[in-house]
Amino acid sequence: MEFLTLESTDYESALKQARREYGNTVRVHTRKDFSKGSALSRKQACRITFYLVAEPPIEPIAEDESVPEQESYDAFAYLQSLLLANDLSPSLADEFALASGSEKAEVEILLVRRLFEDLVFSGQVSQKFLVLMGLAGVGKTTSLVKAALHMRSRQGRKVAVLSFDVHRIGAVQQVRELCRNFSLPLFEADSVQTAQQLIPSLAEFDHVFVDTSGSSNKDEFLREDLRALLTILPSEQTSRILTVSASAKVGDLLSQYEAFGSHALDAVIVTKLDETTTIGNILTFLDKSRLALLYMADGQEIPEVFAQAEASVLLPRLKLFSLDGSHFFPSP
User: Fold this and answer.
1) Contacts with 195 (C-beta within 8 Å, 6 or more apart), sequence order
2) Could you give the CA distance from residue 288 to residue 111 in angstroms, rounded to a whole number?
3) Could you please report the per-residue DSSP string of 44-84?
4) Residue 118 — very low, low, confident or very high, per pLDDT cuts 50/70/90?
5) Which phi and psi (to 5°) does residue 163 adopt?
6) Position 40 confidence tier, pLDDT thresholds 50, 70, 90
7) Contact 44, 10 (CB under 8 A)
8) 3-state secondary structure 281-326
9) Which residues of 66-92 are buried (b: 16+ CB within 10 A; e: fewer)?
């Protein structure tokens, strides 16, 4: 499928120009509104990316043949049903200029490409220190152990765990038990000063996963501890990772991003995929936050149900789609 690009002053003008040149075979893939020019004379503009569909020839109907009754189908209504089923914002429908004859497959492809085209996947982590942060109860400690085991078994990396979760009752016991069960080296720090003293002992490891205290959006005391911890870790060797629950609402996810955003977040780990049936909230959050998606955890079992984030992991969780993943991201 060949994609064409056209730019005009606004969306309607761009679409009209495309249809003047190519007729009704135009199908809009994406639109981007932006401004250009100097600071003193900026002008609004819109760029659309589109493709062309072949118009099937019209077959003559014999006089003695009856025309079968067509099933009623509305492309825009079908798009809205996909948005609703996947807990996606209905306003997304306004971004598409669907022709009345758009097939269901076309609608699905357009929507999936809109959802995934700007999605960033983190890939393999190169930093030495991976600091997991987030609200209490989102599954940081369990996900941290899963990530450490994933790096050790799949990538052959030498890993350790640094526990800085010193305020939550039972937190130290939980990480101790998990590290003992899976033979992960564990270092414990009850203060920033202790953590700093431990850094030389961590030199032999490729990666150190740092477990931090879960806090609420209003817990300034714990966030101050986290800031202090990050100041003693070499910034170029530290990845700051926000851990969020897949069952949280979009507004709550954005509030968490705002609460921890001052720490210059690098990526996201999504937990508790087993507690929800839709991922529209996660896709919307990633679209708005522009954070890279690193890992996805589905349940409490260790080391199972844990995966490096990629489109093929997310796609099967979309609802009501008739096409399989190969239609959206075909193999090279």
Assistant:
1) 162, 164, 189, 229, 232
2) 17
3) EEEEEEEEE-PPPPPPP--TTPPPPPPPP--HHHHHHHHHH
4) confident
5) -90, 120
6) low
7) yes
8) HHHHHHHHHCCEEEEEECCCCCCCCEEECCHHHHHHHCCCCCCCHH
9) eeeeeeeeebeebbeebbeebbbeeeb
Residue owning tokens 């600091």: 131
Q: What is the pTM of this model?
A: 0.73
| Of 237-241, 290-294, 297-301, 313-317, the least confident | 297-301
- Using the structure block, give the residue that is written with the tokens 């966030």: 223
Dist CA 45 CA 47 (whole Å): 7
Backbone angles phi, psi at 302, to 5 degrees: -120, 135
Amino acid at the residue 39: A
Inter-residue contact 131 to 162 (CB < 8 Å) = no
| Strand 26-36 with 43-52, pairing | antiparallel
Residue 231 confidence class, pLDDT cut points 50, 70, 90: very high
Q: Which residues on adjacent β-strands are paired with residue 297?
A: 306
Angstrom distance (rounded) from CA 214 to CA 129: 18
Rounded Cα distance, 175 and 179, in Å: 6
DSSP string, 155-214: H---EEEEEE--SSTTHHHHHHHHHHHTT--EEE-SSHHHHHHHGGGGTT-SEEEEEE--
- Tokens representing 170? 């039972």
Please give the angle made by the CA atoms of 303, 162 and 216, to the nearest 5 degrees: 85
